[in-house]
Amino acid sequence: MSPHIDDTELKTTERNVHMRIVITFTALATLLVLAACSQATPDPKNLTDPFFLDTYSSSGIPMVVGPVLEENGLYSVTVEGTHSSWTVDEWALGVCQGTPETLPMFETPGVWNGRVGMDAVWVFAAPNGSSRCGTPMPFRGSGVRISLDGGSTFTDLSDITGGTGPSEDHLYEYEVTGAGKALVMNRASGSPNNNYGMLRVQVREVAR
């Protein structure tokens, strides 16, 4: 736009046309980026959306793949919930250690849910007949693990959690650094087809 044009109305018209062109191209570019993202990740898990690790599996290790964490990005990961390694029938035999809770905080759909004696970190109750009956409760060892490198290596949450017993709300928070790969959670111990109960996982970015 030339600074020598004195016609105010002409300058205003040209400026409005220029703005419309810029807005149109910006909107188009945004749509193209969104379309590309939806094609690359058909089922993305946003950092603000929770996802669930179901401890039950009819075959294989129970596992869930979460969002990709930006390399060197700082994140807060919270894991919440309760679950069981023993069937409802085993709990019906009575309790040998600790005080179980009546149901999981987040029930596994499609299976029979009952008493629970574990959260993401702690074992706090066990039924009669369990190999854990001789172990004082609570103790760390529920078998829930986290991976920051897309599932290549895992760390047991029991190894990175302090305290002397389960938190009252069965929620634990961890600050992690991204590696440019997906966060993966699994439960590696026990017989997965005996398990029930889901763990709620929430990932948030932390401002540096």
Strand content: 25-35%
Whole-number mean pLDDT? 83
Pick out the low-confidence regions. Answer: 1-44
List SSEs in N-to-C order.
HEEEEHEEEEEEEEEE
Describe, in plain words, how this protein is organized in 3D.
By secondary structure, this protein is α+β, with helices and mostly antiparallel strands. The chain folds into 2 domains: 1-42; 51-205, no CATH class. Helices cover 18% and strands 28% of the residues. It has 2 helices and 14 strands. The chain is globular, with a radius of gyration of 25 Å. The relative contact order is 0.24.
Please give the structural blueprint:
Blueprint: H1 8-40, E1 51-54, E2 63-68, E3 74-80, E4 82-83, H2 88-91, E5 95-98, E6 118-119, E7 122-123, E8 125-127, E9 139-140, E10 144-147, E11 155-156, E12 171-177, E13 182-187, E14 198-205
Antiparallel strand pairs: 1-14, 2-13, 3-12, 3-14, 4-6, 5-8, 7-9, 10-11, 10-13
Structure described in brief:
The chain is of the alpha+beta class and 208 residues long.
Features:
208 residues; alpha+beta; 4-stranded antiparallel beta sheet; 18% helix; globular; disordered N terminus
